[in-house]
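can u do me a favor
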């Protein structure tokens, strides 16, 4: 058939070249996405993801909020197919479970929605659905008149929180009580997870200070939330509430 097609005279036609499917997606995944997830241990939750893209390389921050738990993790990975990407999940706190996230993405264009699944190393697994966020709530500020209660104690809470345009949170915090032995302070790591909520890790800088996981409701004054010690990281489990103002 090839010889016959090339040898005929006077036809004047040409074969239409075959189109090939790109082997790697050219989609733009960079941005901040909010959505929902379902976890085999945590149940139904809210998820926020900020992705930074450089070519096919991806990095970012992820926050998860459940009824009784929160998680903050960093992400690193790449676009690895015509419609897929793979990201390694590394929790900010080593007490939580690392894992791998696999996402389905468009072959090209700005990604506005994407879905996928994740599986942890000897722990939970789940699925997620994300939508590109056009606006994010604000958690940034210098808060010098906050309060904190928990474990039968009441004290003051101060925090300085910075927020990137992608919703990633950082900063410092300090709690003060009547008994100085209960004082604590350290760094803030967090992520916006909903249009009105954020999650934080409050990592202690003190030799024997307990780290905490916290969730805050945004869009109200003062900012309010709840916190708890991270399982396995403190000799005494403690939960409580706080305000930032």
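np, heres the sequence
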């Amino acid at each position: 058939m090839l010889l016959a097609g090339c040898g005929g005279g006077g036809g004047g036609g040409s074969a239409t070249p075959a189109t090939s499917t790109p082997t790697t997606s050219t989609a733009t995944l960079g941005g901040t996405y909010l959505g929902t997830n379902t976890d085999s241990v945590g149940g139904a939750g809210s998820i926020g993801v900020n992705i930074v893209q450089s070519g096919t390389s991806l990095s970012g921050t992820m926050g998860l909020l459940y009824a009784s738990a929160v998680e903050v993790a960093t992400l690193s990975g790449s676009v690895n197919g015509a419609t897929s990407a793979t990201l390694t999940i590394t929790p900010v706190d080593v007490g939580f479970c690392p894992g791998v996230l696999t996402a389905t993405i468009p072959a090209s264009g700005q990604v506005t929605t994407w879905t996928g699944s994740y599986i942890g190393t000897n722990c939970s697994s789940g699925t997620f659905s994300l939508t590109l966020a056009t606006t994010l709530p604000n958690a940034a500020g210098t808060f010098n008149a906050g309060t904190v209660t928990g474990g039968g104690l009441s004290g003051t809470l101060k925090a300085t929180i910075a927020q990137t345009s992608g919703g990633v949170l950082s900063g410092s915090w300090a709690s003060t009580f009547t008994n100085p032995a209960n004082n604590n302070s350290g760094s803030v790591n967090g992520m916006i997870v909903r249009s009105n909520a954020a999650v934080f890790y409050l990592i202690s800088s003190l030799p024997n200070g307990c780290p905490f996981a916290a969730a805050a409701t945004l869009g109200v004054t003062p900012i309010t939330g709840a916190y708890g010690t991270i399982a396995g990281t403190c000799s005494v489990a403690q939960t409580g509430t706080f305000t930032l103002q």
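The chain has a mean pLDDT of 89. hope that helps!!
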